[in-house]
Amino acid sequence: MEIFHECIEKRKTKCYIxxxxxxxxxxxxxxxxxxxxxxxxxxxxxxxxIVGEYSDEGHSGKNIKGHQEFMRMLNDIEDGIDSPKENGxxxxxxxxx
Length: 97
Fold this sequence. Notes:
The chain is an alpha/beta fold. The protein has helices at residues 24-29, 32-45, 68-79; strands at residues 14-21, 49-57, 88-92. The protein has a three-stranded parallel sheet with strand order 2-1-3, sandwiched between helices.
């Protein structure tokens, strides 16, 4: 009698990282690189695969007008670039002052 073991490969959740600062002071005070580092650490801790990173500098968070990288990210998600739509996450760090 043979016993078959089915190996199920655990697929990592794929994620996109989006960072933003709204003013030049914030660009200097809490850098995009620092935000990316925190989000990369979180993704690694959650065993996620980062498939894209996007950043906008000097834009208000009140609306998405002028947020070219945010719009590019949404287009990439919609087009299914690098990540199936049903298995993806968006990571962002929210800073309140």
